[in-house]
Task: structure prediction
Amino acid sequence: MAQEPTHMSGGGEGLRSDAALNRTRILEAARAAFALRGIDVPMAAIARRAGVGVATLFRRFPTKQALVSEVFAEQVKACELLLETALADPDPWRGFCDLLESVRAVQIRDRGFTQAFLSAHPDAGHAAERAKAERDFAEVVRRAQAVGRLRADFSPHDLPLIMLAQVGITTTSSEIADVASRRLLAYLLQSFAVRPDDGPARSLPSPPEMDLRAVIELPADGRE
Result:
């Protein structure tokens, strides 16, 4: 099997340099492809985008899930920070709402995020981080319920449901997607809230300028 090229006559330093460069190219290509098309994009397409051979890609990342796990490692850390921020907010309801808004924004920017976040593969990686995130979100929910702002029958298991509700919106154009997803989340938050004395609900963000025909005529691969 051919080795990755080296541009230095000396032993392993050039090979290490080329291997590191290839790894960076693969990660950048995968990150862009996942954001645009989701994590179902073929490995061969990622290799082409990175300008490397398929064999090189598999030497760096033996499985698709290993690549997915590495690409989304930064977002795992970002999610941990979002949860910490929500838990530190002195207003539990505001912390809950801001957290869902942050997750919504990530979903719209990156089509692969929801698939990776909800991945059930046994080798998905970050199992400990995922378990901690679930515990932290449950605590965010408990705090918002304890102050009487979040309905008592809301479950932490509703988070995947909320995320899946946004998935279809991500297939629209980026301009429409952001506006539509904000309005959808506003609807959802109103349904989650316990309003004092059944008072008036907050006004919703403006609806997107999109009719049913635009949805019906969406191409099969969404934004592309």
Notes: The domain at 73-203 is CATH 1.10.357 (Tetracycline Repressor; domain 2).
